[in-house]
């Protein structure tokens, strides 16, 4: 079943004498069958189901890789850098960023719930229902945040995209080792 969603536009404008200045983020669309053209919420494409893979490690590696590919797209990195640079002048940008992070974490948690409900997922104590939100946050902090932070701090997104596969493989293996011993 195809499920589509479309999004609107956010922005802020101000006028100084005859000049109008503004920041805007355009709309997006998502096909909720594991594809997404969103610049703003890269995890939205996973609302409809967990990523493919025969093992928990493969599924989480695919999730991490897809999220990072989308986040590290040049336009996304530019938007995040702009939002950080202008956050003091435009505090509402922080609210937008927080909404995006919360939405992304909710969608990642939904993926983790699907993985946790699988036979393989039940073997990990960290995937227990009571721990799932924290486990999801640890995954995002360990797998997604390091490369994203490096991009925000000025490293070339193209060189970071080349590192996604190895970074995700190492991070997911480490993450799952910790999840087994909770």
Written account of the structure:
This protein is of the alpha+beta class and 182 residues long. The chain has a domain at 54-180: Orthogonal Bundle (Tetracycline Repressor, domain 2), CATH 1.10.357. The chain has six helices and five strands. It has helices at 56-71, 74-85, 92-116, 132-152, 157-162, 164-180, and strands spanning 4-6, 10-16, 19-25, 29-31, 35-36. The strands form two sheets. The protein has a three-stranded antiparallel sheet with strand order 1-4-5, with no helix packed on it. It has a two-stranded antiparallel ribbon with strand order 2-3. A hairpin with a 2-residue loop joins strand 2 (10-16) and strand 3 (19-25). Helix 1 runs parallel beside helix 4 (132-152) and helix 4 packs antiparallel against helix 6. The longest helix has 25 residues, at 92-116. The radius of gyration is 18 Å and the shape is elongated. The N and C termini lie far apart (37 Å). The relative contact order is 0.13. Mean pLDDT is 79; it is low at 30-48.
Individual helix count: 6
CATH class of one domain: Mainly Alpha
Task: Assign the CATH architecture of one domain.
Answer: Orthogonal Bundle
The geometry reads as elongated
The CATH topology label of one domain is: Tetracycline Repressor, domain 2
H/E series: EEEEEHHHHHH
Number of strands: 5
Major sheet characteristics: 3 strands, antiparallel
Q: Find the structural class using helix and strand composition.
A: alpha+beta
N-end to C-end Cα span: 37 Å
Average pLDDT, to the nearest integer? 79
* Largest sheet, spatial ordering of strands: 1-4-5
| Helicity level | 40-55%
> Rounded to an integer, what's the Rg over CA atoms?
18 Å
Stretches where pLDDT is under 50 for at least 5 consecutive residues are 30-48
What percent strand? 5-15%
């Amino acid at each position: 079943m195809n499920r589509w969603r479309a999004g609107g536009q956010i922005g802020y404008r101000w006028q100084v004498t005859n000049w109008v200045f503004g920041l805007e983020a355009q709309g997006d669309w998502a096909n909720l069958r594991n594809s997404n053209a969103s610049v703003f919420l890269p995890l939205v494409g996973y609302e409809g189901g967990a990523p493919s893979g025969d093992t928990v490690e493969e599924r989480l590696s695919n999730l991490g890789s897809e999220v990072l590919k989308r986040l590290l797209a040049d336009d996304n990195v530019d938007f995040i850098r702009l939002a950080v640079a202008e956050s003091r002048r435009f505090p509402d940008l922080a609210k937008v960023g927080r909404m995006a992070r919360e939405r992304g974490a909710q969608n990642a948690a939904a993926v983790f719930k699907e993985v946790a409900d699988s036979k393989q997922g039940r073997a990990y104590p960290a995937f227990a229902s009571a721990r799932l939100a924290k486990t999801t946050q640890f995954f995002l902090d360990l797998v997604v945040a390091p490369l994203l932070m490096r991009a925000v701090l000025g490293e070339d997104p193209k060189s970071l995209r080349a590192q996604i596969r190895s970074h995700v493989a190492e991070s997911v293996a480490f993450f799952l080792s910790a999840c087994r011993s909770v």
